[in-house]
């Protein structure tokens, strides 16, 4: 199963923490050379060093890819370092506040749209000429919230719905260049975002997200990274325009079905990747819980 991405060059945005960290490690383990992008004060170099320690290849790119300059330079880093680009993973995103819509701060709305939407657009735009040469593919971070919306962070759910439509459009438009474009759509994953002590969710939201999930637990970043690796690999050569759920069943569930799931079935798998920054994604950001 290993080395499905041998010889490929991949950019992973938002790769210093959480799901992105797991994708970067997983891709390196599968043989890809990885450009580890994240914000300058994220632990990017740590992730690069860890990948190298475990025998992989990676280079850092520190910069906010919602800015045109950084999106262009991030793509250029791949070309300068490795001469090609095969895979773009639009993983960067933020979850900065919980508040009902009437109370949602306008500046947080603007930041959420910029970080979640503008970054995916710019990275896709500047990566496409190289992906057309390599017949590569794009996988973007959608979400269960992009299907269903999410109460108390309605703008966030909206940004994920946008990503779903954006990738579908790119899939149809770019098929003539042999490019595939898909979304991986996680449910509640065990990063800073779903931990009340680490981010803006309160204990009620935290409890509800587990009760509403048939598997009655969060997913791990590695469980999500495993699906990214499959979709980005040639094993998924006929998969394009797909919104691929990795959500423990929450999207199809109705009500508090997780309460019936036995405790023994609820433990997170240990996995194989050695990750160090799974829950640090919001450490360097201002978050708000408005009631
Ligand atoms: N955690 C979940 O439950 C969940 C569920 C569904 C979808 N997702 C999606 O998965 C992705 C990763 O989420 P996570 O939970 O790992 O969060 P995280 O906060 O741990 O990771 C996101 C990383 O992206 C970085 N980042 C944000 N904006 C950036 C930008 N403009 N340029 C460069 N780096 C940027 C952040 O600093 C952070 O390091 C997001 O797109 C999110 O929408 C997460």
Automatic annotation (TrEMBL):
Its EC number is 1.1.1.47. The keyword Transmembrane helix does not apply. SUPFAM superfamilies: NAD(P)-binding Rossmann-fold domains. InterPro entries: NAD(P)-bd_dom_sf (IPR036291), SDR_fam (IPR002347). CDD domains: SDR_c (cd05233). It is an enzyme of class 1 (oxidoreductase). GO terms for molecular function: glucose 1-dehydrogenase [NAD(P)+] activity. It holds the Pfam family adh_short_C2. The keyword Aminoacyl-tRNA synthetase does not apply. It comes from the Bacteria. Keywords: Oxidoreductase. Belongs to the short-chain dehydrogenases/reductases (SDR) family. This is Glucose 1-dehydrogenase.
């Amino acid at each position: 199963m290993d080395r499905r991405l041998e010889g490929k060059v991949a950019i992973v945005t938002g790769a210093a923490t959480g799901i992105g960290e797991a994708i970067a490690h997983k891709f390196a383990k599968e043989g890809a050379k990885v450009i580890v992008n994240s914000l300058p004060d994220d632990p990017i170099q740590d992730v690069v060093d860890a990948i190298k320690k475990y025998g992989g290849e990676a280079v850092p790119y520190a910069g906010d890819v919602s800015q045109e300059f950084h999106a262009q330079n991030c793509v250029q880093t791949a070309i300068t370092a490795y001469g090609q680009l095969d895979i773009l993973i639009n993983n960067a995103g933020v979850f900065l506040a919980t508040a009902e819509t009437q109370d949602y701060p306008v500046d947080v709305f603007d930041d959420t749209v910029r970080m979640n939407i503008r970054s995916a657009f710019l990275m896709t735009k500047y990566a496409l000429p190289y992906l057309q040469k390599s017949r590569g593919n794009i996988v973007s971070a959608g979400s269960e919230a992009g299907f269903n919306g999410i109460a108390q962070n309605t703008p966030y759910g909206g940004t994920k719905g946008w990503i779903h439509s954006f990738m579908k459009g790119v899939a149809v438009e770019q098929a003539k260049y042999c490019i595939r474009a898909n979304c991986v759509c996680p449910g509640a994953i065990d990063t800073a975002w779903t931990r009340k002590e680490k981010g803006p969710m309160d204990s009620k939201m935290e409890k509800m997200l587990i009760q509403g999930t048939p598997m009655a637990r969060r997913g791990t970043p590695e469980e999500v990274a495993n699906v990214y690796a499959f979709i980005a690999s040639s094993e998924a050569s006929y998969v394009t325009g797909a919104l691929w759920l990795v959500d423990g069943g929450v999207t199809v569930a109705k009500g508090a079905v997780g309460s019936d799931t036995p405790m023994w079935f609820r433990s997170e798998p240990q996995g194989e990747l050695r990750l160090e920054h799974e829950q640090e994604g919001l450490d360097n950001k201002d978050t708000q819980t408005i009631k």
